[in-house]
DNA sequence: AATGCGTGGCG
DNA sequence: TCGCCAAGCAT
């Protein structure tokens, strides 16, 4: 009988095999995409993917990059143009932050997206996730990339919980300990953990029968217990201030004249105090400006 | 550290 | 129908 036992493959090689055969063919994973747009392409895709689903980002990304193929190109745009191009991707402050980041990259880094995580973190709109995603996926460096997907996979596979707890910087430490030693393998590991969480180890109705690491999952082996969910619930959108802001901004984006009379902005809105609140807060956020009783996108 | 911030698809 | 959820960030 066999004297030589086959070593059981480690987590990272199982995930790498699975990733290479099962991962979705997304634009930002193509070699041609990196050849055309470099790290800027990765950075823009990551901004758009902050809380906006992949399927909604895909049709908007290429148009953005064709209009502004480099940080320097985008740095000379106006906020109004950027917010307009962002359209209905949601959370329009991200468009302003991306614009500021482009200006900062042009000023501080000669127009080249920095590779260093500290430098990336110093840019507007870039936090722990985006900084390391750019460093790992655009530059191939070894950093723990922690997002909602990897946190859920770690919570289930490692802790046996049905949902992760609130996001914590400790997650970075946990993820880093799982990374393979080699830079390139570590980038694949990050991508594979995210892909697994996005397509198999989903928040609701996870497809454990299709999971490549089912055999080593603490949650599955203990019978998928409901361990509770201490994540904060999302506030209701219907009737919210956010909905009012969204309606005002939509009106500004769609205004042919580029400006709307203040008293005509979402004129059919029933809660007038809420409408005024929305306008004031958009101005405070730099997403709108008022002059001569007109409201417009910021110039 | 808890909150506020868009929008739309899906079960 | 309607609540859940989505590659987070700044304050």
From TrEMBL:
Entry annotated with the keyword Ribosomal protein: no
Entries under SUPFAM superfamilies matching the protein: DNA-glycosylase (SSF48150)
Catalytic activity, EC: 3.2.2.31
Entry GO MF terms: purine-specific mismatch base pair DNA N-glycosylase activity
Domain HhH-GPD: residue ranges: 48-199
InterPro entries assigned: DNA_glycosylase, Endonuclease-III-like_CS2, Endonuclease3_FeS-loop_motif, HhH-GPD_domain, HhH_base_excis_C, HhH_motif, MIG/MutY
Keyword hit for DNA repair: yes
Pfam families assigned to the protein according to its UniProt record, in alphabetical order: HHH, HhH-GPD
Cofactor(s), by name: [4Fe-4S] cluster
CDD domains, A to Z: ENDO3c (cd00056)
Family membership noted in the UniProt record: Belongs to the Nth/MutY family.
PANTHER family the record matches: ADENINE DNA GLYCOSYLASE
Name assigned to this protein: Adenine DNA glycosylase
Organism from which the protein derives: Microbacterium murale
Organismal lineage: Bacteria, Bacillati, Actinomycetota, Actinomycetes, Micrococcales
């Amino acid at each position: 009988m066999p004297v030589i036992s086959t070593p059981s493959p480690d987590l990272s090689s199982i995930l790498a095999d699975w990733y290479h055969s099962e991962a979705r063919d997304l634009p930002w994973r193509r070699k041609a995409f990196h050849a055309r747009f470099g790290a800027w392409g990765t950075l823009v895709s990551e901004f758009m993917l902050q809380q906006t689903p992949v399927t909604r980002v895909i049709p908007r990304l290429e148009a953005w990059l064709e209009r502004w193929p480099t940080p320097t190109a985008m740095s000379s745009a106006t906020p109004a143009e950027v917010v307009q191009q962002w359209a209905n991707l949601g959370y329009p402050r991200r468009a302003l932050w991306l614009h500021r980041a482009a200006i900062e990259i042009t000023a501080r880094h000669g127009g080249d997206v920095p590779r260093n995580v500290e430098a990336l973190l110093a840019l507007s709109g870039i936090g722990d996730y985006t900084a390391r995603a750019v460093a790992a996926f655009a530059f191939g460096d070894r950093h723990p990339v922690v997002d909602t997907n990897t946190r859920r996979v770690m919570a289930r596979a490692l802790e046996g919980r049905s949902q992760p707890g609130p996001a914590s910087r400790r997650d970075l430490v946990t993820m880093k300990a799982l990374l393979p030693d080699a830079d390139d393998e570590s980038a694949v590991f990050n991508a594979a953990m995210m892909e697994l969480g996005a397509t198999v180890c989903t928040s609701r109705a996870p497809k454990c029968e299709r999971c490549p690491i089912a055999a080593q999952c603490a949650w599955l082996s203990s019978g998928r217990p409901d361990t509770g969910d201490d994540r904060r619930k999302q506030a209701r959108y219907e009737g919210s201030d956010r909905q009012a802001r969204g309606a005002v901004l939509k009106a500004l984006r769609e205004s042919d004249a580029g400006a709307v009379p203040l008293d005509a902005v979402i004129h059919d809105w029933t809660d007038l105090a809420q409408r005024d609140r929305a306008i004031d807060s958009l101005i405070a956020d730099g997403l709108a400006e008022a002059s001569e009783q007109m409201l417009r996108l910021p110039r």
